[in-house]
TrEMBL record:
It is an enzyme of class 6 (ligase). It comes from Deinococcus marmoris. Gene3D superfamilies: 3.40.50.20, ATP-grasp fold, A domain, ATP-grasp fold, B domain. Pfam families: Dala_Dala_lig_C, Dala_Dala_lig_N. Its cofactor is Mg(2+); Mn(2+). This is D-alanine--D-alanine ligase. Mg(2+) 2 binds at residues 300, 302. Belongs to the D-alanine--D-alanine ligase family.
């Protein structure tokens, strides 16, 4: 019998459009002889759209308005064998939707509540990974209330890290709200921006020199495997939103031209991180690599990475011999796997 799959896309985060693009690819690739797929677009207000509106949203690449309250619609998710929550960022990749599906008793692709929530928050990720012995840059946390009551305290925390440093909303993706702060004069504006998007903000030291950026895919549940390592190259100062989503701004190299022992370490660290964070199904684990010193630090873990045909995660597994269609099929199988 064909499996009935509910594919969720869009959502409330700054990565709404990216999610709809990924969903178009996945929808086209899930083999029709095995799966009966129903896409449901989620509007920017978090409402679940009916079929005609969903079709339009997938075509237009955006669902600004419309739809029903989630709690009215989740009952209609009953009867599906599995859900593919192809959602990025808050209210989708952060354990919220995963909690709803867990309560509804429906298996789903990807990490559960714990792995999703911890991996979404860059501070929690750093804390958990530090206890697993994974190398990372120095960092400090600041919360919004501190920025409104004790600005000097927050500035002092930044000074401890030294400049340049990165200021980021703790729970976002696609580089939204991230600033590279070159000196104290740029700090306040960066903090204002990050706090306009999140209650929690992470300040991060930079590596000694400009790092190379390596990414690796992890696939599986409690016996995960790692893909070959990929590298991103770009001319901009860092991998910002424009560089990520403007055609031709970044080059992908698979496999990354790095020494074999570095690739081995990347893959081992990625698997350790995946387990430490209780991830499931899939994750893309991103690293900074300093060529001169050989130093490797883990940057972040994405539990629902970009998933178009040309996105890094599927490309990494394609290089390992697993085509896009086989990959999405495998992800649904993993969602249904007894654990
Ligand atoms: P997102 O989850 O939005 O992708 P990241 O933490 O990956 O956020 O940061 C986006 C990009 O910013 C990275 O890919 C890298 O180019 C740059 N960057 C972030 N943090 C640092 C850092 N500590 N040192 C050097 N570059 C950084
Ligand atoms: Mg991210
Ligand atoms: Mg990133």
């Amino acid at each position: 019998m064909k499996k009935r799959i509910l594919l969720l896309a869009g959502g409330q985060s700054g990565e709404h459009e990216v999610s709809l693009m990924s969903a178009r690819s996945v929808l086209a690739a899930l083999p029709r002889d095995q799966f009966d797929v129903t896409p449901v677009a989620i509007s920017k207000q978090g409402r679940w759209l009916p079929p005609t509106d969903t079709r339009q949203a997938l075509e237009n690449g955006v669902a600004a308005t419309g739809g029903d309250l989630v709690l009215h619609r989740v009952a209609s998710a009953e009867g599906y064998d599995a859900v593919f929550p192809l959602l990025h960022g808050p209210m989708g990749e952060d354990g919220t939707v995963q909690g709803l599906l867990t309560l509804a008793g429906i298996p789903f692709v990807g990490s559960g509540v714990l792995g999703s929530a911890v991996s979404m928050d860059k501070v929690m990720t750093k804390q958990v990974l530090a206890s697993a012995g994974i190398p990372q840059v120095a960092w400090r946390l600041a919360v919004r209330r501190e920025w409104s009551t004790d600005q000097d305290g927050v500035r002092a925390r930044a000074a401890e890290l030294g400049f340049p440093l990165f200021v980021k909303p703790a729970n976002l993706g696609s580089s939204v709200g991230i600033s590279k702060v070159h000196g104290p004069e740029e700090l306040d504006a960066a903090l204002d921006l990050a706090f306009s998007l999140d209650r929690r903000v992470i300040l991060e030291a930079m590596t000694a020199s400009r790092p190379r950026e390596l990414e690796v895919g992890v696939l599986g549940n409690d016996a995960p495997i790692a893909s070959p390592v990929g590298e991103l190259r770009f001319a901009s100062e860092f991998y910002d939103y424009e560089t990520k989503y403007t055609e031709g701004r970044a080059e992908v190299h698979i496999p990354a031209p790095i020494p074999e022992d570095v690739a081995r370490r990347v893959r081992e660290l990625a698997l350790t991180a995946f387990r430490a964070l209780d991830c499931a199904g899939l994750a893309r684990v991103d690293f900074f690599y300093l060529e001169e010193s050989g130093e490797l630090v883990l940057n972040e873990v994405n539990t629902m990475p970009g998933f178009t045909q040309t996105s890094m995660y599927p490309k990494l597994f394609e290089a390992a011999g697993l085509g896009y269609s086989e990959l999405v099929t495998r992800l649904v199988e993993l969602a249904l796997e007894e654990r």
